[in-house]
Write a structure and sequence with these properties.
With about 300 residues, the chain is of the alpha+beta class. The protein has a domain at about 130-265: Nucleotidyltransferase, domain 5 (2-Layer Sandwich), CATH 3.30.420. The protein is about 40% helix and about 15% strand. The chain contains 11 helices and 10 strands. The chain has helices spanning about 10-15, 20-30, 75-90, 95-105, 105-120, 150-160, 190-200, 240-260, 265-280, 285-295, 305; strands at about 45, 50-55, 60, 130-140, 165-175, 180-185, 205-210, 225, 235, 240. The strands form 3 sheets. The chain has a 5-stranded mixed sheet, with helices on both faces. The chain has a 3-stranded antiparallel sheet with strand order 1-2-3, with no helix packed on it. It has a two-stranded antiparallel ribbon with strand order 9-10. Strand 9 (about 235) and strand 10 form a beta hairpin. Helix 3 (about 75-90) crosses helix 5 (about 105-120), helix 3 (about 75-90) crosses helix 10 and helix 5 (about 105-120) packs across helix 9 (about 265-280). The chain is globular, with a radius of gyration of 22 Å. About 30% of the residues are buried.
Length: about 300
C-alpha cells in the first residue's frame, strides 16, 4: 500500500478525516480481513465502535488501535500521523517544542508523542549483521571540549574525561543496517561489549574497530582488523571505521542542534529514532513513513512508565 504524498501539507490533505486515518491503519495492519489482537484469530464482526472476534472461545471486542502504540490515545490519529511523518522525514529529528508549534499541541503532549514514536521505532530484528561490520563507541553528554587545556589534561590523566557522559556502541554493516546499545559503565571493557557483538554480529563477519581496549581479544571469536587512530591511521586499504563514525556524526549533530540535551535515561530511545532513519536511508519519506506503521503492533508506552 503506497500513498502518494511528498510533504506534510499533502499528508494533512490526505488524512482530512479520522475515518480516513482509521481505514489507513486498518489496511496497514490487516489488509482486507481484520485479525483479533487478543487471540490472533483472522476474522471479526463489524460493530458500531469497532470489531468483535468471530472465535467462540474469544469473542472479545477491539478497535483498529487495540494492541498498537495508538491504543487508548486521546490524540487524533491525524495528529499522530503528522507527527510520525515529521519525526521520520527530518534527518536529524524534530524537537518537542517545534512539533508542538507545528501541530498546535502542548510541548508536553508533543514530548510524549515523540517518545511513543521512538518506542515504536526500536529495532527488534533478530537477523545478525554480516560481511564487513564496523564497531565504534562514542560518549554523549558533558562539555569537556569547553574546558581549558589544563583541565582537560588533568581529567585525561585521572581517567575522568568521560565522567558525566554516557557511552553508545554502534555496529554498522557496510551498505546495511546499524545496531546501537547504550552502555552506562563509566569505563566500558571487553566484557561490556562482547555480549552485544555476539548478539548482533555473525561469526562469519569481518569486524573492523579502532585500537580501543574495549575490543581486546575479539580475534578469539571473530575475524578482526583494527585501524590505529593514535598513530594517525584512519584508512588502511578497505579497513576503516568511517561508516560508523558517519552515523555518530548524524546522532551527535541531531542531539546538539535539535535536542540540545538528552538525559542518559532516554538516550536509548533517541538512538532508536536515529537508527531507524539510518536503516531506511535509501527509501523515500513516504516509504519510511509506511515502514513505521509496520512497527506499531504490540508496543505500549504509558506516561507513568515514561517518567518513572
Amino acid at each position: 500500500m503506497t500513498t502518494q504524498f511528498k510533504s506534510l501539507l499533502q499528508v494533512l490533505d490526505y488524512f482530512k478525516e479520522e475515518s480516513t486515518c482509521i481505514a489507513y491503519l486498518a489496511n496497514s495492519r490487516w489488509g482486507e480481513t481484520p485479525c483479533c489482537p487478543h487471540c490472533g484469530n483472522v476474522g471479526a464482526y463489524k460493530t458500531n465502535r469497532g470489531y468483535k472476534c468471530k472465535a467462540k472461545e474469544c469473542g472479545k471486542k477491539f478497535t483498529v488501535t487495540t494492541g498498537t502504540i495508538f491504543e487508548s490515545t486521546k490524540i487524533s490519529l491525524r495528529t499522530w500521523f503528522a507527527a510520525m511523518y515529521l519525526c521520520t522525514a527530518h534527518k536529524k529529528g524534530i524537537s518537542s517544542l517545534q512539533l508542538g508549534r507545528d501541530l498546535n499541541v502542548t510541548q508536553k503532549t508533543a514530548w510524549f508523542l515523540l517518545h511513543r514514536i521512538r518506542e515504536m521505532l526500536a529495532n527488534n530484528q533478530t537477523e545478525q549483521l554480516d560481511g564487513m561490520v564496523e564497531i565504534d563507541e562514542t560518549y554523549v553528554g558533558g562539555a569537556t571540549k569547553n574546558k581549558s587545556n589544563k583541565k582537560r589534561r588533568e581529567l585525561k590523566e585521572s581517567g575522568q574525561q568521560f565522567v558525566n557522559k554516557t557511552g553508545v556502541v554502534a555496529l554498522v554493516q557496510r551498505g546495511g543496517e546499524v545496531r546501537t546499545k547504550v552502555i552506562y559503565t563509566q569505563k566500558p571493557k571487553i566484557g561490556d561489549v562482547l555480549p552485544i557483538i555476539q548478539q548482533h554480529v555473525s561469526e562469519n563477519a569481518l569486524i573492523i574497530t579502532d585500537c580501543s581496549n574495549m575490543y581486546t581479544n575479539l580475534k578469539t571469536n571473530y575475524n578482526h582488523e583494527t585501524v590505529n587512530h593514535g598513530e594517525s591511521e584512519y584508512v588502511r586499504g578497505i579497513f576503516h571505521t568511517n561508516t560508523v563514525e558517519g552515523f555518530f556524526g548524524q546522532l551527535k549533530r541531531g542531539i546538539i542542534g535539535i535536542y540540545h540535551y538528552v538525559s542518559p535515561k532516554h538516550l536509548g530511545a533517541y538512538c532508536n529514532e536515529f537508527s531507524f532513519r539510518y536503516n531506511t536511508r535509501k527509501v523515500s519519506d513516504i516509504e519510511r513513513f509506511e515502514d513505521a506503521f509496520k512497527k506499531c503492533n504490540n508496543v505500549r508506552l504509558t506516561y507513568e512508565k515514561l517518567i518513572s
